Each structure stands twice: as C-alpha cells, then as structure tokens.
C-alpha cells in the first residue's frame, strides 16, 4: 500500500488575497510569471486558462530529471483554494490564499504525493521535501514580486479591479489570442 505525504511552504504576501489568487489562477499570463527557473520549463494551457476547468501541460526538472506533467485545475473554494491534479502521476498541488488583515495574504503551496515504494517513503519525503520547499519558497517570492508590480501599476484586489487581472490585461501583461 503506498504511503502518502504532503510537502508545503507558506509566505505572508503584502497584498490583498484577491490579487494573489488572480495571479495564481490565471494560467495564461499570471501563473507562468511565478514559476521559478531552472525547475520549471514551459507551461502550456490546453483548455480554459483561468481557474476551474483549465488543463495544463508543464515541464519540471527535479534532481536532474525532467518530467512532463498534465494537470486539471479545480477550485474547491473559489477565490481561496485552487488545486492542480495530475492523475497519472498521483500528485495534487493545492494553492491556498487566506486574508490576513485588509491588505495582506498568507499563501500556501502544498503538494500531496504517494510513495510507490513504502519502505523508501521517509527517505523520499526528506529529499523531495527539502527540494520542493526551496522551489516553493522561490515561487512564493516570485508571486510577491508579481503582485507588487501589479499593485504599483494600479491593479486593485476587489470588484471590477480584479477583472483585468484575470483576463491578462494588466500593464505589462502580454496580449492573449485564443
């Protein structure tokens, strides 16, 4: 029977939760900007593009091995919890965005794995955990940087101000033609 474990990292981001969430949920122009190099290669949107119903293809290099993944995006709690599920690999990554006061957010990235070799689970968890936490810390730092740039250009985090974020029409965001 496979052992299951979770690796997570959190950061306090000085931006409204809606702004943070919009960047994470926008797989065409937001999310690609927070994927840290050299671990992540191209992210391709296969369907959708914003939030639930989006299907993505991505490349991730860990311990010298590049893996191509395919994930389906769901939003169990829209605006607060977004999940990427790679059924084939048995991996689920959850992004949770919580309000902390009026203008800050706690963002957590957590990935749940199943170890295929139960007796190796604790060693695997230690090695993978150390590496993924480093990757997630960089991803959270890039999110902090991205939302800082968006706020500096006048993107708000509530009401109509979040619509341009989700649609990839913020200053400096590339145009998207579907």
Give a description of the structure.
Helices cover 26% and strands 37% of the residues. The protein has 178 residues and is an alpha+beta fold. A seven-stranded antiparallel β-sheet has the order 1-7-6-5-4-3-2, covered by helices on one side. It is globular and about 50 Å long.
List the helices and strands and how they pair.
Blueprint: E1 3-13, H1 17-25, E2 40-47, E3 55-62, E4 65-77, E5 81-86, E6 91-99, E7 105-115, H2 121-152, H3 162-166
Antiparallel strand pairs: 1-7, 2-3, 3-4, 4-5, 5-6, 6-7
Helix pairs in contact: 1-2
For the structure shown, list the relevant keywords:
single chain, about 180 residues, alpha+beta, Alpha-D-Glucose-1,6-Bisphosphate, Chain A, domain 4, 7-stranded antiparallel beta sheet, 3 helices, about 35% strand, globular, disordered C terminus
CATH topology: Alpha-D-Glucose-1,6-Bisphosphate, Chain A, domain 4
Query: What is the succession of H and E elements?
Result: EHEEEEEEHH
Low-confidence stretches: 157-178
Provide the CATH top-level class. Alpha Beta
Rounded to an integer in angstroms, the radius of gyration calculated over CA atoms is 16 Å
What's the count of strands? 7
Total domains: 1
Mean pLDDT: 82
Count helical runs: 3
């Amino acid at each position: 029977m496979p052992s299951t474990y979770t690796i997570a990292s959190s950061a306090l981001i000085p931006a409204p939760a809606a702004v943070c969430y919009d960047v994470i949920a926008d797989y065409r122009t937001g999310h690609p900007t927070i994927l840290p190099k050299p671990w992540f290669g191209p992210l391709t949107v296969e369907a959708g593009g914003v939030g639930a119903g989006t299907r993505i293809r991505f490349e991730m290099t860990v311990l010298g091995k590049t893996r191509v993944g395919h994930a389906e995006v769901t939003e169990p709690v829209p605006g607060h919890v977004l999940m990427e599920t790679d059924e084939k690999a048995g991996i689920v990554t959850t992004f949770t965005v919580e309000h902390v006061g009026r203008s800050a957010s706690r963002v957590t990235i957590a990935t749940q794995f199943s170890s295929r070799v139960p007796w190796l689970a604790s060693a695997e968890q230690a090695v993978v955990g150390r590496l993924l936490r480093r990757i997630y810390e960089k991803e959270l730092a890039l999110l902090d940087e991205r939302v800082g740039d968006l706020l500096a250009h006048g993107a708000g985090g509530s009401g109509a101000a979040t619509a341009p974020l989700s649609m990839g029409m913020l200053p400096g965001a590339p145009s998207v033609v579907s």
